[in-house]
Amino acid sequence: MQEHDLSYILNHLGEEDRARHRGAVAPPVYQSAIFAFDSVAAMRRGFADELDQTVYTRGNNPTVEILRKKLAALEGAEDALLFGSGAAAIAAGVLAGLRAGDHVVCVQKPYSWTRTLVRDFLARFGVAHSFVDASDVEQIEAALRENTRLVVLESPNTMTYEQQDLAAVAQLARARGIRTLVDNSYATPLNQNPLALGIDLVAHSATKYLNGHSDVLAGVLCGSKALIREVFQGPYMTLGAMLSPHDAWLMIRGLRTLPLRMRQVAETTARVIEFLKAHPKIEQIWYPHDADYPQAGLSRRQTRGASGLLSFTIRCDTTAAVERFCDALQRVLMTVSWGGYESLLFPVAVVYPPDTRVGQQRPGQVPVNLVRLSVGLEEADSLLADLAQALDRV
Ligand SMILES: *Cc1c(COP(=O)(O)O)cnc(C)c1O
């Protein structure tokens, strides 16, 4: 899969020429918007290739370029582009190949802003869509139309972690000249490489595991040189949602420990799952790397290792009990997002009025008594103790 081993990518790739920076081990932040030329001929060469030359930081910047090389290598991609958020990366990948009159097929419960992009934003520009239960490839096939240009996937997806058979979807789409994009934020490039399975574009919210420290918003899009250049000439340069050099520098630092963080998180999450399964106040658990998960076979086939994001429902009559559980947590922080060094919890009850009866969710939505837990780097024992004392309040 990879030309270089993992530690080479994380420690050296893109940083080999340290003599250029007087031996600095950590790369400098090129905090410059613009790059000057000493001749018209040199400037002309810069203009001819704003993706790979340094002209203007909206297009390329040396600090961002280090990160770009590392992320492309991690995904086994020819090239990558960094964005100021995961949402910007997904939007750029989706918008690049579409025009009025086209049709898009998308997984039925994608990340919320991916749903808004496909359902509301694209509609304003004359692009139609179908949301399908993509855990079944036949449903994707049935939704394809003459004018379908793109299939948008997210595997595992947000909140309930349904997966798509990426190789099967890629094969189906390729045969008809339809482009595929997958949001690979959950698995990370360590555990799943969709490009190797035939997917065209891979997007990540790098805000989550890749950066891993809850201090930077970033996104990345990976693909072939030709596709990345198409995205660059289109939405990347026109919308200008690039990553700042300083945030790229922080991300390079966060990325160095990705394998260590993922290993620890997978180990602790196994303990958390074991604890939740045995707890009488837990109704159902969603975790794609648990043997009891309906698509556990696909997880084993398609991914190399586990992540630390899971969901569970609490056995109760109304969301008041969920609120008591959440409010009682001492170590786990209640917030949006996931994938940080600290354990994070998101209760679905927050988008419903207080004291909503269990089962009252809107059609197609996840249960009102579901909470999502992102396991962090705390000792397993303190995390379990915190969950146990909070569950006592239910
Ligand atoms: C958070 C998230 C996004 C959006 O990423 P941002 O960095 O917040 O813009 C996209 N997809 C998934 C699965 C996410 O969890």
Automatic annotation (TrEMBL):
Listed transmembrane segments: none
UniProt cofactor(s): pyridoxal 5'-phosphate
A Pfam entry, by short name: Cys_Met_Meta_PP
Top-level taxon in the UniProt lineage: Bacteria
A Gene Ontology molecular function term of the record: transaminase activity
Keywords: Aminotransferase, Pyridoxal phosphate, Transferase
UniProt family annotation: Belongs to the trans-sulfuration enzymes family.
PANTHER family: CYSTATHIONINE GAMMA-LYASE, TRANS-SULFURATION ENZYME FAMILY MEMBER
Name the UniProt record assigns to this protein: PLP-dependent aspartate aminotransferase family protein
Native source organism of the sequence: Tahibacter harae
